[in-house]
């Protein structure tokens, strides 16, 4: 797929064909347009990247889509259902979960307890599932360790495990590689691929282009709150608007 300018993107595709669909998504902060008519169409079962210079609106978009910021305008649909303006807890129950740049684990709870509390209400075998997930990334030795005693990288990985406890249809990852050593990082990528093979869709913010190249088939590029390109990484790198946004050339 070739990288294309925004006015050539597949923005008119019906939202029912996508796990996540945003149309005319905008966010204004005191006259500063942080998001401007953003249109994303995230295909079911895809691993899609979201890249752009610092301050381009990537995390603002995640905040709006996940319900952490309920003041955006436009239309956002998750599996065909409108979610813009809903509480984060409602969107979580609807099937969208996310990580954050900074860990949000409960420091006074153990690693296992942090996972169990993220399971859906009345979910069967939550403790067993938590144990299984910890084993898959070789963190089962930390089952009864308080989250406050983990390293930064371990906290990021446990936060990812917590996100998948509810079996979401769509996972938003905000710079998942930041602060994680190569061993933990490889475990995370393996789990992303495994979950994706089982049908989970991912949208990933990441500044490390090697991560994007390794995981994502396609990427959206944001700059100054607007989508300026979409396509595979090699083609968007050659896009003139992308080169200007990153390098001023």
TrEMBL record:
Residues annotated as domain ABC transporter: 20-249
Pfam families: ABC_tran, BCA_ABC_TP_C
Gene Ontology CC entries for this record: plasma membrane
GO molecular-function term, one example from the UniProt record: ATP hydrolysis activity
Xref: InterPro entries: AAA+_ATPase (IPR003593), ABC_AA/LPS_Transport (IPR051120), ABC_transporter-like_ATP-bd (IPR003439), ABC_transporter-like_CS (IPR017871), BCA_ABC_TP_C (IPR032823), P-loop_NTPase (IPR027417)
Keyword Repressor among UniProt keywords: no
UniProt key word Nucleotide-binding: yes
Keyword terms: ATP-binding, Nucleotide-binding, Transport
Name of the molecule in the record: Branched-chain amino acid transport system ATP-binding protein
Species: Candidatus Kentrum eta
């Amino acid at each position: 797929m070739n990288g294309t300018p925004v006015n050539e993107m597949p923005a008119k595709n019906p939202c029912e064909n996508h796990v996540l669909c945003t149309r005319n998504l905008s966010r204004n902060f005191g006259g500063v347009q942080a998001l401007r008519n953003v249109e994303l169409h995230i295909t079911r079962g895809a691993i899609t990247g979201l890249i752009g210079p610092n301050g381009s609106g990537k995390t603002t978009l995640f905040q709006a889509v996940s319900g952490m910021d309920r003041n955006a305008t436009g239309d956002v649909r998750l599996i065909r259902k409108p979610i813009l303006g809903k509480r984060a807890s409602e969107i979580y129950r609807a099937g969208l979960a996310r990580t954050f740049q900074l860990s949000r684990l409960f420091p006074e709870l153990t690693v296992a307890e942090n996972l169990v509390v993220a399971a859906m209400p009345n979910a069967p075998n939550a403790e067993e599932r938590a144990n299984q997930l910890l084993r898959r990334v070789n963190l089962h030795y930390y089952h009864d360790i308080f989250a406050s005693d983990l390293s930064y990288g371990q906290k990021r990985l446990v936060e990812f495990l917590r996100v998948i406890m509810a079996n979401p249809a769509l996972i938003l990852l905000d710079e998942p590689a930041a602060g994680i050593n190569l061993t933990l990082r490889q475990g995370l990528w393996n789990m992303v691929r495994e979950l994706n093979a089982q049908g989970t869709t991912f949208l990933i913010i990441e500044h490390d282009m090697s991560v994007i190249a390794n995981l994502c088939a396609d990427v959206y590029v944001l700059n100054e709150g607007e989508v300026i390109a979409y396509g595979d990484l090699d083609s968007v790198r050659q896009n003139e608007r992308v080169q200007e946004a990153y390098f001023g050339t």
